Amino acid sequence: AQKITQTQPGMFVQEKEAVTLDCTYDTSDQSYGLFWYKQPSSGEMIFLIYQGSYDEQNATEGRYSLNFQKARKSANLVISASQLGDSAMYFCAMRESLSGAGSYQLTFGKGTKLSVIP
Amino acid sequence: KAGVTQTPRYLIKTRGQQVTLSCSPISGHRSVSWYQQTPGQGLQFLFEYFSETQRNKGNFPGRFSGRQFSNSRSEMNVSTLELGDSALYLCASSLLRAVGTEAFFGQGTRLTVV
After folding, report:
1. Residues of B whose CB is below 8 A from A94
2. pLDDT in tens, B21-66
């Protein structure tokens, strides 16, 4: 089973509108971290926002917020007031503690390509 | 503060050759991880180094290897290149090895095998 599932291969949003990118995850760990990254066509992965499994409040960073629903194992990214520069690939990722196995790798979803329309 | 630097940015190699990619992490970061990104497989974990020791390795053949130096700079090597090794190779550095630690990525090395 996939650990990170992003069901939207592509999304379109009108400039200045809000958009939600979906992410569900699968883990048996109690302690884990969820991350969202933006990848423009240049290739660099840009960190956007982080949510810890024990965080009770949803994370926010400027125009980005994370809608964390732990029981449903979902961590959706909400981008408010979309801008043309938001057009990029967006990846949801998880870092698990793997019960002390000593592995801290990031596991990524397949990504969602967001296109902002003027 | 300088970010993660990967060199070279682009490479074209012939099947059967070997290649070495370099990654300089953010100053003070001791954890360096490598990822391969292809259109078909997405982002896949290659290996992680911390304090010059490989801590974890992904499901890749032995042709893929790496190392980390005392200044935390890391190199990865791919021997006997295959067409399927064409990919964007991303390096990420982290301050700590912990669940909540942010990973900072470089711009990647785009490898084309012909």
Report:
1. none
2. 999 999 999 999 999 999 999 999 999 999 999 988 999 999 999 9
| B contacts of A43 (beta carbons < 8 Å) | 88, 90, 107-108, 110
Mean pLDDT of A16-24: 98
Q: E-strand spans in B1-114?
A: 5-7, 10-13, 19-24, 31-38, 42-50, 53-57, 64-68, 74-78, 87-94, 104-105, 109-113
Cβ separation A106–B105 shorter than 8 A: no
- Count CB atoms within 10 A of the CB of residue A28: 8
Please return the burial class of B111, using the count of CB atoms within 10 Å of its CB with bins 0-12, 13-18 and 19+: buried
The CA distance from A108 to A111, in Å, is: 8
Residues in contact with A79: Cβ distance below 8 Å, sequence separation at least 6, in sequence order: A13, A18, A19, A20, A21, A63, A64, A86, A114
Pairing label, strands A64-69, A19-21: unpaired
The band of B99, judged by pLDDT with boundaries at 50, 70 and 90, is confident
Q: Evaluate whether B23 touches B109 at the Cβ level (below 8 Å).
A: no
